[in-house]
Every structure is written in C-alpha cells, then in structure tokens.
Amino acid sequence: MLNFNLHTTTEIVFGKDIEEQIGPRLKELGVHRILVHFGGSSARTTGLLDRVEKSLFAAGLAFVELGGVSPNPKVSLVRKGIALAEREGIDFVLAVGGGSVIDSAKAIAMGVATKTDPWQFASTGTKPDTTLPVGTVLTLAASGSESSNSCVLTNEETKEKRGITSETNRPLISFLDPENTYTVSKFQTGCGIVDIMMHTLERYLTPEGGESDITDRIAEGLLIAVRDAGRRAIANPRDYEARASLMWAGSVSHNDYTGCGRKRLFPVHKLEHELSAFRDEIAHGAGLSVLFPAWALYEMKNDFPRFAQLANRVFGVEMDFHHPERTAREGILTMKRFFEEIGMPTHLTQLGIKPENYAQLAANTVRTVKGPVKSYSALDEQAIIEIYKLAE
Fold it and tell me: The Alcohol dehydrogenase iron-type/glycerol dehydrogenase GldA domain covers which part of the protein (predicted)?
C-alpha cells in the first residue's frame, strides 16, 4: 500500500427535505452574498430552485442567479459568471444541479478568487491556490463533484475538455436529498451509475498500490451496492433507498476514500474526455460505458490477477486459478452486459464515432496529456486506436 493523504473536508447534509436548512446553515458559515448557479429550466419547474431561494431569503441572505449550464460545462459561461460575481460582490457560489453545474461553480469560484481565467489552469496543468467557498444542492448521483477535488471544463472554441484538480476545489458544504433525483431520466440515471462505478474502478485497476485489502474491500462493496441499487432505480425511479444509495455512493466514490494507498491515473476518463469534446452531445457516462470494457480487454494482460479478483468478488465469476485470464475476460464481459442491461451504449458506433475519426481522436488525446496516456502500459496513439477497435 502506498503512502496517502486523505483530505475530505466537505460537510455533507444528507436526507429528505433538507432544503430548508440551506439558508440557516450558510448564514452560520458567515455567507453574505451568493451566486445561485444552475442549469436549465428543470431546476425551476421541479420547484427545487424556489425552495432553495426561499430558504436563502428567509435567512436574510442576498443572492443573484446565473443559469444556463449545459452538459460538458463551457468556459464561456464560467467567464460570464466570474464577471457577474465580481460585479455583485459575491462571497459564496451555490450550485443547484448535477456535476456540470457544480464544476462550473467551482471554476467561477476559483476565477474570482485568483483573478485568473480558469482555462489557464486547465490548459497548463497548474493549480489554483485559493477559491471562494462553494456549496452544492445535488440533483444527480453521478460525478461526485459535490465532495471531490476536481472539476472539468470544455472550451467550445478549441474543442478541448480538460480537468483541474486541486484541494481548493472541494466544496465547503453539500446538501444531498435523494428525492431530488426522482425525476432523473433512465438514461441519465444509467450514465450516473457508470460514472460512479468508474470513479472507483479507475482507482482499483491501477498498476501501483501493492497489497491494499482494506481499500479493495471498500471499493468492491461500493461497486456491488451501486450495481444493485442501480438496477432498482432503473426499474423504479422513486425507490428512495436505491436513490439514496446511489447518491451517497457518488460522493464516496470520488472523494478518494475508495482509492487510499493506490495511485490514481484515470486513463479511461482521459480517453473519454476527447470523445465528448469532439462530439458535445456525448454524455460522459455513455462515453465511459463504451470505452471501459475495451480498455480493460486491452490492458488485462498486464494484471490478470487483479482483473480476475474484480470479476470474482464483484460480478460473481467463478475463479479459474489455473487460467485467471479467463476469469478476467468473463468479468469484463459481465460488466459490459450490465451496462447494456441498464440501457447504456457499449459500441462507438452508438456514439456516432466512426473509424475515420480514430486517428484524430487518438492524436488529440496524446496532445492533451502531453504524451502517452499513463495506464498499465503507456497508451500512445496506436494503442488508443487499438482500444477504439475493441470498442467498435
């Protein structure tokens, strides 16, 4: 097990009808002027935004709104948010939505505090050293951004999608009410299930970490719980316990708890970012459900025992101790079938990606990460193209 630091500072307020606590809690934290950041009309039509703002108003807190966040949040809106926050003297950003809204809010907060365009951090790999405090009211169990140290932005002009990772990115407080996810579509629920699982799988399937049985068991338990709760939430969107399990798992899966003692590389996320940058309509979870099985089939030869352990402990594949490669392969195919069961794509053609796009996408990926993608092996352009072929 590698040395590690675990720094999970976000206060989680979890449960039914917690919106009424938002105003009083933020007042206790010394907040004065809030930017309420959200996506489309659903935040208003579901009544959630009104409940949040009613709580803020009752607590005597001033606020302004900025909506319009789209999937794969755009740096252009972030820049508008920074200008608005500076003009209004904002001292707190409250995201009401899913991962895209939260990531956009994080970028606005860092831009105001550092006086630096957030794309500067994204494009250079530098880290902000300060930020405005951020809070979240979560509406989608998926990204884990409500307690993670990362955010992802898309530059629509250059068609680039890049992340910013810094401990300053962790929200100060997050309000998680599972009932706010009842209206999430089956497709978006499926995308969330995949994203949650991938945040743990990419910590679990990594070449460095040695013996880490406690962390492994935590990760495996989360994956099993998400698989089972995911099936229930797809079948019955108003299953509170299933929605609660997914919402809590989303936070735990990406606050680093399921990867303690292992080195985080996230190669599949890096491959996927280029897909959704290339075609903005590709949902992040959908890109992951296509690429993960292909990546796993390509890389399993470098660690058959670990892939076989995953197959056996999480997906119930009988262990073949003489030929662990058989167990590993069957585990990957079992997971692929699970993705299909919950309505997720597993082929690049389903995303509109064609063979003639492979070379450009592979080149973009290598350029973005400034060299081969770090994984079990160094994934250069040819290796990435081979993974695309396995995902056809």
Answer: 10-178
Decide the pairing of beta strands 173-176 and 92-97: unpaired
Q: How confident is the model at residue 206 (pLDDT cuts 50, 70, 90)?
A: very high
Using alpha carbons, list the distances in angstroms from residue 143 to 102, 224, 316, 359. Answer: 9, 18, 26, 28
**CA separation for the pair 269, 276 (Å, rounded):** 11
- Which burial class, exposed, middle or buried, applies to 380 when counting CB atoms under 10 A from its CB (0-12, 13-18, 19+)? middle
Helices (H), the chain: 22-28, 42-45, 48-58, 75-88, 99-114, 118-124, 186-204, 213-235, 240-253, 267-278, 284-299, 304-315, 324-341, 358-368, 381-390
pTM score > 0.85 for this model?
yes
Q: Which residue has the tokens 């250059």?
A: 158
Query: Is the CB of residue 261 less than 8 Å from the CB of residue 212?
Result: yes
Which pLDDT value is given to residue 361?
A: 97
Q: What is the dihedral of CA 326, 301, 228, 289, to 10 degrees?
A: -120
| Structural domains in the chain, sorted by start | 11-180 (3.40.50.1970), 187-390 (1.20.1090.10)
Segments in 174-323 forming alpha helices (H): 186-204, 213-235, 240-253, 267-278, 284-299, 304-315
Identity of the amino acid at 237:
P
Tokens 């406690």 belong to residue = 214
Tokens at residue 36, please?
A: 């309420």
Answer for the pair 142, 71: CB distance below 8 angstroms, yes or no. Answer: no
* Residue 279 and residue 353 in contact, taking contact as beta carbons nearer than 8 Å: yes
The set of residues, in sequence order, having a beta carbon less than 8 Å from that of 342 and lying 6+ positions away, is 186, 189, 190, 193, 230, 231, 234
End-to-end CA distance of the chain: 36
235 has a pLDDT exceeding 90? yes
Contact partners, residue 159, CB within 8 Å, separation at least 6: 277, 278
CB–CB of 95/101 below 8 Å?
A: yes
Q: Whole-number mean pLDDT of the chain?
A: 96
